[in-house]
Amino acid sequence: MEGVTSNKVVAMSVAVILLLDFACSMAAATTCADVGVQIQPCVGLLQGNVASPPPQCCDGLAAIQTYEAQLGINPTCNCTKGLLFQIPGLSVNVQFSVDVQNNCSVSLGFSLDTNSGC
Question: Cα separation of 118 and 111, whole Å?
Fold first, then answer.
């Protein structure tokens, strides 16, 4: 009888651990709003008001690169480009996107150019 009880305790403990792990992963889920927070320091650069990316912009692009690893390229790209389309005065082309990523030592799986797809 004692073996059956300890098996139940182990099974319940595993179930609780799995539920906690699931809850934590859901709480840590990345949203498009998270991407927006990270792209915000790059707005002046993307509008052509700043010559080189500020450190906060590079940090944000690095965070977006991490989100890309978690979520995949297409969801991250679609979210980022959706946000970029909302920025007034946006002036991003393919070469600019490459330069920004190179200056920040970041390699996104997509261009920040709003004329290219995901």
Answer: 8
Per residue in 10-63, pLDDT tens?
333 333 333 333 333 333 588 999 999 999 999 888 888 888 899 999 999 999
Please give the span between the terminal C-alpha atoms of the chain, in angstroms, as a whole number: 59
CA distance 63 to 69: 10
Is the CB of residue 9 less than 8 Å from the CB of residue 75? no
**Is the separation of the CB atoms in 24 and 65 below 8 Å?**
no
**With contact defined as beta carbons under 8 Å apart, do 30 and 75 qualify?**
no
CB-based contact 85:43 (threshold 8 Å): no
Query: What's the pTM?
Result: 0.71
Dist. CA 43–CA 29, nearest whole Å = 24
C-alpha torsion sign, points 100, 102, 103, 105: positive
| Residue 87 burial class via C-beta count within 10 angstroms: exposed 0-12, middle 13-18, buried 19 and up | middle
